[in-house]
Amino acid sequence: MHKKTVRNIRHLTLTDLEEFFEGMNEKKFRARQVHEWIWQKNAMSFADMTNLSKDLRQMLGEQFVLPALTVDTVQHSEDGTIKSRFKTHDGHLIEGVLIPTTARFTACVSSQIGCSLSCKFCATGYIERKRNLDYDEIYDQVAIINKQSEQENGKKLSNIVFMGMGEPLLNYKNVLKAIERITAADGMAMSPKRITVSTAGVAKGIRQLGDDMVKFKLALSLHAATDAKRHEIMPINDSNNIKALVDALNYFYKKTGNEITFEYILFKNFNDSLEDADALIKVYRQVPADLVNIIEYNPIDFARFEKPEEQKVMAFMDYLSKHRVNVRLRKSRGKDIDAACGQLANK
């Protein structure tokens, strides 16, 4: 008799599944059917696996668990952005966002429940980190948001950004494993070039990505271009200063040749002067970055920051452009439903 162990069925490889079915005197092809249900048809329960007999589904239910994410609430913004609050099997809540534009349909996904980095301008930073998300939970977010995109826009997701709740590089293994499943031919078969992982600056993790020769893009949330200012808003800078990050990014690029982007939120009278722009130019020139994304700040209830006036933003960007910095303004989306950058906190 097969020893009863209640394992997460999604943590088994196809080979594991084949061995399991053979051990149960079942046909080997059942493994492929189950694997397809889990990763391509996004079954949320064993009952969904309709081409398996009732007995087989029951047996799977006794041997394994399928702890799929469920959708708790969905909010629609007037600009077409959709924010979903997902519930994990153990009752935690996380958020993911679908951002549609004319050219692309992007999923912004979370990697942790809460966050341990306490960045002063980000709502998630004020929630304590409960735990890391498993790779199948990250995959579920993408699968659910992809389905929303097909229903609402008639189009599949074109891009994925790891810019939701949590620091992806502090959940390194699960994030990489999720991307592996998302890009696998027997997963979502998405190109890794359409995936961007954003980090608040974990130098060791950035180097690890280089060693692992990843294929996806990397974004660094810089937000201040001097250690003194960065330290004020991002405590992680104490252990990962700008020089350490510059070195790590150069190492990453040397190993992978992948695109690197800087993210820079403008805060009124904090990092929006031309001196700040000069500091940013200096950092930009030390790294083979292809772009600086200037991000509109989205105020949150408990932070002291404000958004600069539009002419100040334009002056900052013009100055960067004049100094041959490839710069782009990332307009905020989903502000009316707290779905914009830095606002995810399960209101």
Topology diagram in text:
Blueprint: E1 7-8, H1 14-23, H2 29-39, H3 54-63, E2 64-65, E3 70-76, E4 82-87, E5 93-100, E6 105-108, E7 112-113, E8 131-132, H4 135-153, E9 159-162, H5 172-183, E10 195-199, H6 203-211, E11 217-221, H7 227-233, H8 242-256, E12 260-265, H9 274-284, E13 291-295, H10 310-322, E14 327-330
Helix pairs in contact: 1-2, 4-5, 6-8, 9-10
What features would you highlight for this structure?
347 residues; alpha/beta; DNA polymerase, domain 1; TIM Barrel; 2 domains; ten-stranded mixed sheet; 10 helices; 34% helix; elongated
Descriptive account of the structure:
The chain is α/β, with parallel strands linked by helices and 347 residues long. The protein folds into two domains: 7-65, DNA polymerase, domain 1, CATH 1.10.150.530; 70-337, Aldolase class I (TIM Barrel, Alpha-Beta Barrel), CATH 3.20.20.70. Helix content is 34%, strand content 18%. It is built from ten helices and 14 strands. It has helices at residues 14-23, 29-39, 54-63, 135-153, 172-183, 203-211, 227-233, 242-256, 274-284, 310-322; strands at 7-8, 64-65, 70-76, 82-87, 93-100, 105-108, 112-113, 131-132, 159-162, 195-199, 217-221, 260-265, 291-295, 327-330. It has a ten-stranded mixed beta sheet, with helices on one face. A two-stranded parallel sheet has the order 1-2. The protein has a two-stranded antiparallel sheet with strand order 7-8. Helix 6 links the parallel strand 10 and strand 11 (217-221). Helix 6 runs parallel beside helix 8 (242-256). 46% of the residues are buried.
